[in-house]
Amino acid sequence: MLAAAKPIRELHGITPGDLGDSVLAATEPLVLRGLLAHWPAVQAGRQGNASADAYLRRFCRDATVNAMLGPQHIHGRFFYNEDMSGFNFNSVRARLEDVLQELARQRGNPQPPAIYVGSTTIDTALPGYCEENPLDLGPRDALASIWIGNRTRIAAHYDLPDNLAGVTAGRRRFTLFPPEQLPNLYIGPLDLTPAGQPISLVDLHQPDLARYPRFLEAMRHAQTAELAPGDAIFIPSMWWHHVEALESFNVLVNYWWRQSPAYMDTPVHALMLSLLSIRDLPPAQRAVWQDIFRHYVFEAGEETAAHIPGPARGVLGPMGDATARMLRAHLLRKINR
């Protein structure tokens, strides 16, 4: 029997001034009820779709955005096509005002096409919005993005940055899975993805347990929450999250930041190189490289290179901008040989 997802832990009465490390450096997800209730955008969203739409249009300055458009029969689920050679939607560049106009035109349609504007930088598309709806995250260099659409579903995926997301219009349901549930989520291709990140192939509305039997175990660890305007959710780095927009007009604002130095590349690059250079080695050699990675990466400490004079440690010494540039150039030369 498919287990019901557990509620995500909630904090009530929290204000933006309370956003310290106990929230923003947490390793478990948190729902922050009413965190953004004071925002003018939320006040407009609580008055209804027309008010929320009009509020966004105040900031439109002829910006062009990436939009995902899907036919009626996908029922809002952006996914692959039948043979996974492509996708069940089209990606287009469009004026944000035109997208908002189409969303308004489809609002009374009981079976509308799926319309979704995702991960759009607010300062580019809606200049002035962040000044009127501020959120101080302290020293974190966060990127503020906006997500706009009708009833849509985004398959479970992870993001490398930590993520604080807040609903300003409509409602959204989040279903989260801890990072260690990766084997039970049946992840699709790494190099052909709907929006940049690998996704779970399991349909949460109709999970095919004959095809994906381990998903039963994933659901035993699932957590869920439904957010209304003013509510926010903190999603830690690498947690899988399925996101469903539940109304005919939905707006979400999110902030991404990394707990790592700016010079660091995404670990996905290391994964891809490992697939190229390690995965298909004989088992005994793979085991040796597993130990090498453990020694130099996963269990590295001060003693790893203590026997080498400091100036001679090279990439085994402290990493910084200059060393990172040198190492990146070295890798490019090797890869392009």
From TrEMBL:
Gene3D superfamilies: Cupin. InterPro entries: Cupin_8, JmjC_dom. SUPFAM superfamilies: Clavaminate synthase-like. Signal peptide: none annotated. Residues 115-272 form the JmjC domain. This is Cupin-like domain-containing protein. It comes from Pseudoduganella guangdongensis. The lineage of its organism: Bacteria, Pseudomonadati, Pseudomonadota, Betaproteobacteria, Burkholderiales.
